[in-house]
């Protein structure tokens, strides 16, 4: 029975598997006669030779297929057997450089934009909580505005609107990004606003050097551009309704590209002299890639220049009377 079990087709395969991992001495102990021992020892030697040849051939194939190893890693990772981080996640595609976007280190907010929504400073027409004299000034301006005779509007005399009024004027502006700077080019007043990046906002500044647009300093927090603006003049208005502020105003913006066609700016005004608490609004802007910035010269078409009493009108009534 032992001989037929070894030589039979049913018993040969299991025996070969065992012989592959069995020493010669153990094999000899399995056989009962000398003739079978000899045949078994020869089979062991043949199997070892075949195994060694197979290993050498596998090593040679491995050298020849070395360029395909990364593919194997990807396949294993895809099967969930290795972390994807071992191979490395695909790198995001960076936007192409252009005349307005020349710094790939920055998220892209470049392009030509125009404000959406109402011309009031806040889209929902809310106002900041004004203190004492600033509330009284706003009440005076509101009454005059409703009567159709605005007062104290510096823009009526072709003076700059300044910040934060520029945020809500219905004229386009262009954003340009270059290394270390974001530049805003406004059609209104032909104003230019330069925002250096990575420069700390000063804690003190010379108020005698206050300007209409102030001093702006920016930095990136992920895909959000954070801009701090200080040292602003106190005689400009938030919008055409006459909302006031003081020279203590500080503007904080958090600007991001919400989607390819929308720019979002979360604006917070902090003014310890004029406001009881910080005042925040969010304004949205739509891209207008086919538009261009036009020349703006207020003096050539100033239809609402203040009169001797400082009152200003839209100019429509005076023009109709002249005709």
Tell me about this structure:
The protein has about 325 residues and is of the alpha+beta class. It folds into 2 domains: about 90 residues; about 200 residues, no CATH class. It contains 8 helices and 9 strands. It has a 9-stranded antiparallel sheet with strand order 4-3-2-1-9-8-7-6-5, with no helix packed on it. Helix 3 runs antiparallel to helix 4. The longest helix is centred in the N-terminal third of the chain and has 31 residues. It is elongated, with a radius of gyration of 40 Å.
Strand content: 15-25%
**Portion in helices:** 25-40%
Please state how the strands of the largest beta sheet are arranged side by side.
4-3-2-1-9-8-7-6-5
- The average pLDDT is 80
- SS element count, helices: 8
Distance between the termini: 129 Å
In terms of structural class, how would the helical and strand content be classed?
alpha+beta
Largest sheet features: 9 strands, antiparallel
Q: Specify the overall morphology.
A: elongated
- Gyration radius, in Å: 40 Å
Low-confidence stretches: 1-20, 27-31, 66-79, 314-323
- What's the order of the H and E elements? HHHHHHEHEEEEEEEEH
Number of domain modules = 2
Oligomer: single chain
Number of strands: 9
